[in-house]
Amino acid sequence: MCGVSPIEHSSGKTQRRRLNRGGNRQANAALFRIALTRLRADPRTRAYVQRRTTDGRTKRDILRCLKRYIAREIFKTITATPTTAPT
């Protein structure tokens, strides 16, 4: 829905993926801003980027993976049922 699903974008021997250009572009832009903010402030995200960089990923690939992770995290939060009844 947000346009962060991976699509094969390969040619020859290279295996690449790109983000889906369809979907809600405003939501995609929001995920991008969240990812940039987390890159600056969140120690977990910094550790994730460091680990992926060590694995040989590019900054662009890391950002793509991070946006998908954030989208899954937000979806779980939005669709979670409340544990307590409102008063």
Task: Give structural notes.
The protein is built from 3 helices and 2 strands. With 87 residues, it is mainly alpha-helical. β1 and β2 form a beta hairpin. α1 crosses α2 and α1 crosses α3. The mean pLDDT is 81.
Outline of the structure:
This protein has 87 residues and is mainly alpha-helical. It is 57% helix and 7% strand. It contains 3 helices and 2 strands.
Number of helices: 3
Q: Determine the structural class based on helices, strands and strand pairing.
A: mainly alpha
> What is the count of β-strands?
2
Major sheet details: 2 strands, antiparallel
Relative helix content: 55-70%
Shape, principal axes of CA atoms: globular
Radius of gyration over C-alpha positions, nearest whole angstrom: 15 Å
Calculate the mean pLDDT score and round it: 81
Q: Which strand-content bin applies to the residues?
A: 5-15%
The end-to-end distance, rounded to whole angstroms, is 33 Å
How is the quaternary structure best described? Answer: single chain
Order of helices and strands: EEHHH
Strand order of the largest sheet: 1-2
Unreliable segments (pLDDT under 50, ≥5 consecutive)? Answer: none
